[in-house]
Specification:
Elements (H helix, E strand, L loop, with lengths): L4 H8 L15 H12 L14 E7 L8 E7 L2 E7 L12 H4 L2 H4 L9 E3 L8 E3 L2 H17 L6 E5 L5 H13 L4 E3 L3 H13 L4 E4 L6 E4 L11 H8 L7 E5 L5 H5 L2 E3 L6 H14 L5 H7 E2 L4 E2 L5 E2 L2 H4 L5 H8 L3 H13 L3 E4 L11 H13 L9 E4 L14 H7 L22 H7 L7 E5 L3 H4 L3 H8 L4 E4 L6 H4 L3 E2 L10 E4 L7 E6 L12 H12 L1 H5 L6 H9 L1 H9 L1 E4 L18 E2 L33 E6 L13 H5 L6 E2 L2 E6 L1 H7 L6 E6 L2 E9 L7 E5 L38 E7 L1
Parallel strand pairs: 6-7, 6-17, 9-10, 9-15, 10-11, 12-23, 17-18, 18-19, 24-29, 26-28
Antiparallel strand pairs: 1-2, 2-3, 4-5, 4-19, 8-16, 13-14, 20-21, 21-22, 24-30, 25-26, 26-29, 27-28, 27-30
Helix pairs in contact: 5-21, 6-21, 7-15, 10-13, 10-14, 10-15, 13-14, 17-19, 23-24
Length: 762
């Protein structure tokens, strides 16, 4: 059957179950799937609800950064059901499948139920349970030894987020200890955050006021694959009656593309070229916002720098990106490029969004800037329905940290990942650079690694080299709730509570147009001998003593929140959230904190590694993805889906159970391939094949899919785990392991979007 947008929706996208308009906005579809999975299994760990009074406890989901409100139903004190919390401003009752299935994380057989000490070789799976006192004593002894040796900077911490009180808590520990090496997993917002800083001089969380926009131009952002807050996006685009016009640009017909007003297929990696081509048309036809450009922008027209050198402005620069040229780069017709540019410019409140998939892939700075410049061309900066930056709100009052000489010397050392240094001064975290740095060093610059809410051994590209790199670290401590790949490689595991067992302040995710501080409350007492990670770090600080202990004077994490938030704590604890209005800069003349005090089409603060005198304007240069094109004639790209957790947290068994059999069949995962490409290679539906990239090989099966461009193949993120439980381990292929990392020359971020691949008969 030929698949177009209409019959794709009816054929079986994961977001339209039964075809009822708006059905995804209620718990019904996901609950039906949940019940089906529950009652058709006889798994020994499946909980049997007990009788008793029914009650509800509101909380906030922390399984992803989205921060959706949830309402947990309890029977006799046992949680039995999770629903979206109505009237919670982030998601207004909507919830993604992972949120609905959240009970599986509480009762998951992969949970680490007490502190563990490794026995034998790393990865063998031999563990000895130890007491909390013994585990904390062992970890702090190692940290104390490194500090006594004058090497506090050799301790690093990898975390999945730096957005919230708990993350600031861990960062405070690293500062008091004396290490600058607090490193976060990458997101697309890293590039966008830097783009806003460079062009607008505003530091903070990027805001995309999609609620008030009427034309959304998405360059691959997986709005219905988990981008930002899944519940928020479901509210905005789950209803087929939405008046917003959504144009989705990507090489594959994703769930977002299927739900969009229009899907425009593009050669993978050519999004930046298209953005420059659209800018060309908008400027050439004088469709740009002249008032904004003339009064509040710098670098649009040609100019002369302080040395007297003539510089090309953006308007001149994009003359090289005419529709004919861009058509050859993108695979989109010149007519479509011109009509899209006109539609975008003529819309009332258009907004352009960068970032692929569910927001885990940063992309290149050139691409991010080119897309952001479209927002400036239509004057939709710092406006309702536009793009702005939300400054961090100081809702917690921290006592000043006093540090000793050891910490002072450690903090003066360069970061291990190079972020914030001379080469990449505008970038805060560069986790993608860690494996290469560790492998290249004579002695590992990291002597002890703490890992919180992250699973780098699964999520980072090139699994084989990443594992070799981490094996050079003498001492690894995981605070994971589950036996993930990184925890399985650790020396000690000090397990955190799950999201339903712990107290946590949860700021709304990037993109939300106002500051919402939510409170995740424990809805049940800890099931096992786990401990709140905040309490663990307080215990560790106390054991280290001195100035480190003085930085953590609280009895426990709850006492910290109560004391540091003051009067706001009572409101937060009572209402479950605090809402802080986001005031847009007014007047516009004082909106920008750049060198020119204007929006900069020519980012004067941009650090480049190009030859002296080269332009800082965005250009299009194809990302040099790995692989010999004569050997690897296909291009493999990853994709995200709401029913697969593809990042630092893994899928639960029930969601894995309901995956389509064109995604996972028994233990084998599928690659999507265009029928024309499959015919050329001699494959038919369901055939077994060997997938190879420069980074590894995997046995897969073939799924013919007309919703993907020729010579491109796609695999979902979230399968191929080597840890967790038997219900997940060994199912499918980890596409991250087959990917390579490509360093952006101006930001240092990983800008790889795919890799060359081959598909041969098994």
């Amino acid at each position: 059957m030929k698949i177009n947008r209409r019959n794709f929706l009816s054929y079986g996208t994961a977001l339209v179950l039964g075809g009822a308009a708006g059905s995804m906005l209620t718990p019904a579809p996901w609950k039906l799937m949940d019940d089906l999975a529950i009652w058709t299994q006889n798994w020994p760990w499946t909980p049997v609800p007990e009788d008793g009074p029914v009650s509800y406890k509101p909380s906030v989901c922390t399984l992803c950064p989205g921060g959706c409100g949830i309402n947990v139903r309890l029977t006799g004190g046992r949680p039995v059901k999770i629903e979206g919390l109505r009237d919670y401003p982030v998601n207004n009752g909507s919830l993604c499948p992972m949120g609905f299935a959240g009970l599986q994380y509480l009762y998951n057989p992969a949970r680490v139920i007490s502190p563990l000490k490794r026995e034998g070789k790393r990865g063998e799976g031999k563990w000895t349970p130890v007491s909390w006192d013994e585990a904390i004593a062992a970890v702090t002894q190692k940290l104390a030894d490194l500090r006594a040796a004058g090497r506090p900077e050799s301790v690093a911490c990898i975390t999945g987020s730096d957005h919230g009180a708990m993350d600031a808590f861990v960062s405070r520990f690293m500062t008091a200890y004396g290490s600058p090496n607090y490193i976060r997993s990458a997101t697309a917002m890293d590039a966008m955050e830097q783009a806003i800083d460079l062009t607008q001089g505003q530091q903070g969380t990027p805001v995309f006021d999609i609620e008030n926009a009427d034309f959304i131009l998405s360059f691959g952002a997986g709005l219905l694959e988990g981008w930002g807050s899944a519940g928020r996006m479901l509210n905005l685009f789950g209803n087929q009656k939405s008046a917003k016009k959504l144009i989705q640009i990507e090489p594959r017909l994703s769930d977002t593309a299927a739900r969009a007003t229009q899907w425009i297929a593009i050669h993978p990696g050519a999004e930046g070229a298209l953005a420059l081509g659209l800018a060309h048309v908008i400027i050439k036809e004088s469709l740009y916002n002249k008032y904004f450009v003339d009064n509040f922008a710098f670098g649009f027209s040609d100019w002369v720098d302080e040395t007297g050198r003539a510089r090309e402005g953006f308007a001149t620069w994009v003359k090289a990106y005419g529709p004919e040229k861009v058509s050859g780069l993108t695979g989109i017709t010149p007519e479509k490029i011109m009509s899209l540019a006109r539609d975008f410019a003529h819309a009332g409140k258009p907004i352009a969004i960068s970032g692929r998939g569910n927001d885990d892939l940063p992309g290149s700075m050139d691409e991010t800037l080119a897309i952001h410049f479209l927002n400036a061309l239509v004057g939709n900066i710092n406006k309702t329905g536009g793009v702005s930056a939300l400054p961090e709100t100081d809702y917690a009052k921290w006592p000043e940290i006093n540090i000793d000489e050891t910490a002072s010397k450690g903090l003066q050392q360069a970061r291990i990942d190079g972020a914030g240094g001379d080469e990449f001064p505008n970038t805060r975290f560069l986790i993608n650079r860690l494996p290469g740095i560790l492998l290249a060093a004579g002695e590992s610059p990291i002597q002890a690694l703490l890992v919180t809410d992250a699973n780098p051994l699964y999520a980072l590209a090139d699994a084989e080299n990443t594992k070799k790199a981490f094996d050079r670290i003498p001492f690894i401590v995981s605070f994971a709730s589950f036996m993930d790949e990184t925890a399985a490689f650790a020396d000690y595991i000090l397990p955190n509570h799950t999201h339903l067992e712990r107290l946590q302040v949860v700021p709304a995710t990037a993109g939300v147009a106002r500051q919402i501080i939510g409170l995740a409350k424990p809805v049940v007492k800890p099931v096992y001998d786990t401990r709140h990670i905040g309490d663990t770090f307080i215990n560790m600080a106390g054991a280290l003593g001195g100035f480190v202990a003085q930085a953590f004077p609280w009895k426990n994490y709850e006492a910290f929140l109560t004391e540091s938030m003051g009067n706001q704590w009572e409101e937060l604890n009572q209402k479950g959230r605090i809402e802080i209005d986001h005031s847009l800069p007014d007047p516009m003349a004082f909106a920008f904190n750049t060198t020119s005090a204007k929006f900069e089409f020519y980012p004067t603060a941009r650090s480049t590694k190009r030859q002296a005198g080269d332009s800082a304007l965005p250009t299009f240069t194809p990302v040099p993805i790995e692989g010999d094109p004569n050997r690897f004639k296909l291009t493999l790209i990853p994709y995200d889906a709401m029913r697969l957790a593809g990042g630092d947290i893994a899928n639960v068994p029930f969601l894995t159970k309901i995956l389509d059999d064109t995604v996972l069949k028994k233990q084998t995962g599928f690659v999507e391939i265009n029928p024309a490409t499959a015919k050329k290679l001699g494959f038919k539906e369901g055939d077994s094949a060997k997938l190879a990239t420069p980074k590894g090989e995997a046995m897969v099966r073939v799924h013919l899919f007309e919703g993907i461009m020729p010579d491109v193949i796609a695999m979902p993120r979230g399968l191929g785990h080597t840890a967790y439980s038997d219900y997940l381990s060994g199912k499918g292929t980890n596409v991250n392991a087959l990917m390579g990392s490509v360093e952006d020359p101006t930001s240092g971020l990983d800008m790889a979007w795919g890799i060359r691949a081959s598909l041969t008969r098994a």
